[in-house]
Design goal:
Its EC number is 2.4.1.-. This protein is an alpha/beta fold. Among the domains are: 31 residues; 203 residues, no CATH class; 155 residues, Rossmann fold, CATH 3.40.50. The strands form five sheets. Strands 13-12-11-14-15-16 form a six-stranded mixed beta sheet, with helices on both faces. α9 packs across α14. The chain is globular and about 80 Å long. The protein starts with 18 loop residues before the first strand and ends in a 5-residue tail after the last strand. The structure holds 2-acetamido-2-deoxy-beta-D-glucopyranose (11 copies). One 2-acetamido-2-deoxy-beta-D-glucopyranose (NAG) binds next to loops. The site of one 2-acetamido-2-deoxy-beta-D-glucopyranose (NAG) has 2 residues, from loops.
């Protein structure tokens, strides 16, 4: 069966959406949407395979000064006729060399126009980047010197995929700066090994049917099966789900289990299949889809404490690792627990936490993960880029948006503004916070209030604002439209528009959220709101150390507006509180020197480099 990205009807939305993200005891909503922006449509080198160089203004529908639904329609227009994937690869949707250009330009300001000669675009070193006269049936980006090593992210990804079924997999490296972090040879070998197990034991294989049948018939008594499984079930918003899914995947690798995901309709069409020639979706007809009547990990622990007998282990176990402040310790990080779990062929895990640090804390796994990730602060960076590839539908929206608005800029700033308590926090206080952070750290320039003439405008910074409230973006736009900047930089602000009178189902919410997170991850600099798992996904994919905005909950002013994070790893908000012997965990850093309290949540922990 050829794995394929799921199809998604292209009635794309750009209105108000709410993504609940539980972090402590409160629900916080981040709400953002996508849509019409002030476009500016100077010439932009278009997609590499077009016969002639066209400008953005020619290719894109007029997005300037439009409001409402037009972008939505434009997206529909360009997606419907290329939904087959084939045309997409062959024709208009081939990657824009302008995108690659931006990355190069940011280091070296030679203009792209200066490098087009005889329809060949050259890099600064004179090497050919792309030919503008490629044959029409060329399904890879037009003669772009695609180093396979770049394309496969230094060996992180495996070759052999049907490229057209997941265009983002081969194109993402053109949009993102090359990562300075190479996956270790050991990580690569573990991934290839995992893929082999998944191919052998995944859905629709004989081994799968045999193992699952055996498990089903021996629910309450142990069974030795050919293959072992780990079923991921969703909890909380998409950001939480993605960081948790990456952690769950790592746990699957460490325990030689096949990862299967319970993706409901809400995640339809978001991601490509990550594993070659197989699927990671738990089949709908599986008896373990939403299985409620199985033994729980908590009960297993109690039984284990009462007697030492592990003879009556079940074949299926539900592990709830969702945080609550008052929960008894779960001892999931402990060797003894893992010893028990190892014998159970099917585990169903539910959590909204990035529990990777607890795997490092576990003596069972510590050696393995340390070998896989010599740079401990890159776990999500690697696993996230391995697992999460936007589907063709999502990728079209991401890449089109990127090229229309962001690719032209010399620098991109991602600005995620979440308001935790809209009622008690005046908008002005949030705006002041954002400005005070971005101006102080020179992420954005000061405006020149004395003159409106302006200096020579040299560089363009694009600011992508993700927020429920369009006022923040509007304020920024107004500020930079009225006055030139002291630095001479031109600031272009793009903020999603937002429709209050429409209702959308979760799938659209999630699609929107995913596109938002991905675009934020392409930033050169990122400013996020503390505790935001959306921010974590973006920073991890993009290898960015974000500036964390202070979590405002009322009209306060006396605090640093933001702090720079020390790694791009997500924060594990609710880590274990006890050693395995039951003693309270006191000095975490001396016990686990590679862990630090998170900057945005002191109770939480995250990975750091050994050397820090
Ligand atoms: C490019 O455009 C010019 C003018 O529009 C046209 O004369 C020329 O044939 C085009 N070249 C190709 C390769 O299509
Ligand atoms: C887009 O706008 C420009 C200038 O406003 C105009 O010249 C052009 O004809 C428009 N294109 C379309 C397709 O409407
Ligand atoms: C989309 O296509 C329809 C019909 O093909 C056309 O009327 C409409 O103008 C197009 N919209 C845009 C924004 O290009
Ligand atoms: C795609 O390219 C073809 C010619 O190769 C052109 O006729 C068509 O308008 C383009 N479609 C879009 C959506 O740009
Ligand atoms: C290019 O796209 C056009 C319309 O979008 C389609 O008719 C044509 O078959 C495509 N060409 C190739 C070579 O796929
Ligand atoms: C761009 O880089 C090339 C070589 O890497 C160098 O010769 C050239 O001077 C650079 N141009 C600018 C404007 O920095
Ligand atoms: C692709 O183009 C080459 C020549 O440019 C031709 O020989 C080949 O048959 C074409 N393949 C397809 C699938 O059209
Ligand atoms: C994946 O499937 C394709 C087509 O079915 C096949 O050619 C290829 O050999 C398979 N790859 C692996 C690793 O099984
Ligand atoms: C459980 O095992 C430990 C040592 O492995 C032993 O000290 C303890 O007495 C046993 N408890 C029971 C209830 O069997
Ligand atoms: C601004 O640009 C003009 C010509 O483009 C040049 O003459 C002038 O010296 C520049 N001014 C500054 C301050 O760079
Ligand atoms: C918030 O605080 C500032 C200064 O501390 C004050 O000027 C402003 O009026 C306050 N706003 C509200 C809504 O309380």
């Amino acid at each position: 069966m050829a794995p394929n990205s799921m199809s998604f009807p292209m009635f794309f939305v750009m209105f108000s959406i709410a993504f609940p993200v539980v972090v402590t005891v409160t629900f916080m909503y981040r709400n953002s949407s996508f849509g019409l922006f002030e476009g500016y449509s100077e010439g932009n080198l278009q997609r590499g395979t077009s016969q002639n160089v066209t400008t953005a203004a020619e290719r894109l529908p007029n997005v300037t000064e439009t409001h409402g639904f037009q972008l939505g329609r434009a997206i529909q227009n360009t997606t419907h006729d290329s939904s087959g994937g084939k045309d997409q690869g062959n024709n208009n949707s081939t990657v824009s060399s302008g995108v690659k250009e931006r990355q190069r330009r940011s280091q070296n300001h030679t203009s792209i126009e200066g490098r087009i000669k005889n329809n060949i675009i050259t890099a600064d070193d004179g090497s050919k980047i792309a030919s503008l006269t490629s044959s029409k049936n060329d399904s890879t980006p037009a003669h772009v010197n695609l180093d396979d090593n770049d394309k496969l992210l230094g060996g992180l990804l495996t070759s052999g995929f049907d490229e057209e079924s997941c265009i983002s997999r081969i194109q993402s490296h053109l949009y993102r700066k090359a990562s300075p972090h190479k996956p270790s040879p050991y990580l690569i070998s573990k991934l290839r090994n995992y893929e082999e197990i998944h191919t052998r034991c995944g859905p629709n294989t004989r081994a799968y049917h045999r193992s699952m049948t055996m498990i089903e018939h021996s629910k309450n008594k142990g069974a030795a099966t050919l293959c072992k499984y780990l079923i991921w079930t969703p909890a909380n918003g998409l950001g939480n789900q993605m960081i948790n899914l990456a952690a769950t995947f790592l746990y699957a690798i460490l325990t030689d289990r096949v990862l299967l995901v319970e993706f409901g309709k809400d995640k339809h069409g978001l991601f490509c299949e990550p594993f070659l020639n197989s699927t990671w979706i738990l089949p709908r007809k599986s008896p373990f889809w939403n299985e409620k009547h199985i033994e729980t990990y908590q009960i297993l622990l109690e039984k284990d404490r009462a007697s030492n007998s592990t003879e009556d282990l079940p074949s299926v176990l539900f592990i709830n690792l969702q945080h609550t402040r008052s929960d008894p310790e779960k001892y999931f990080h402990c060797g003894h627990s893992q010893d028990l779990l190892q014998k159970i062929p099917l585990l169903t895990l539910q959590s909204d936490q990035y529990f990777v640090p607890s795997l490092f804390m576990n003596p069972f796994f510590n050696q393995e993960v340390t070998k896989m990730f010599p740079e401990k602060e890159t776990v999500f960076h690697h696993l996230g880029r391995y697992l999460f590839h936007p589907s063709n539908e999502a990728w079209k929206l991401i890449s089109d948006y990127y090229e229309a608005h962001l690719a032209k800029a010399d620098k991109q700033i991602g600005l995620q503004i979440r308001v935790f308590s809209p009622v008690s926090t005046p908008q002005q206080a949030v705006m002041d916070l954002v400005l005070s952070c971005t101006l102080k750290h020179k992420i954005l320039p000061q405006v020149d209030l004395q003159t409106s003439a302006g200096k020579n405008q040299t560089t363009v910074k694009a600011v992508l604002v993700a927020s429920l409230y369009r006022e923040y973006g509007d304020n920024l736009k107004r500020m930079y439209r009225k006055n030139p900047t002291l630095s001479g930089e031109v600031i272009k602000v793009y903020q999603p528009s937002h429709e209050e009178h429409q209702k959308y189902n979760d799938n659209k919410h999630n699609m929107k959220a995913w596109i938002d997170m991905y675009l934020l991850s392409l930033s050169d600099e990122l400013v996020t709101t503390s505790l935001s798992t959306f921010g974590y996904v973006a920073q991890g994919l993009g290898n960015l150390k974000p500036w964390l905005l202070y979590k405002l909950v009322n009209n306060e002013t006396h605090f640093p507006p933001c702090e720079r994070d020390f790694s791009s790893e997500p924060c594990y908000h609710f880590p274990p509180k006890h050693y395995c012997n039951g003693e309270p965990l006191k000095d975490i850093v001396s016990s686990f020197p590679y862990l630090r309290p998170c900057k945005d949540f002191r109770v939480g922990l995250k990975m750091v480099k050994d050397s820090i």
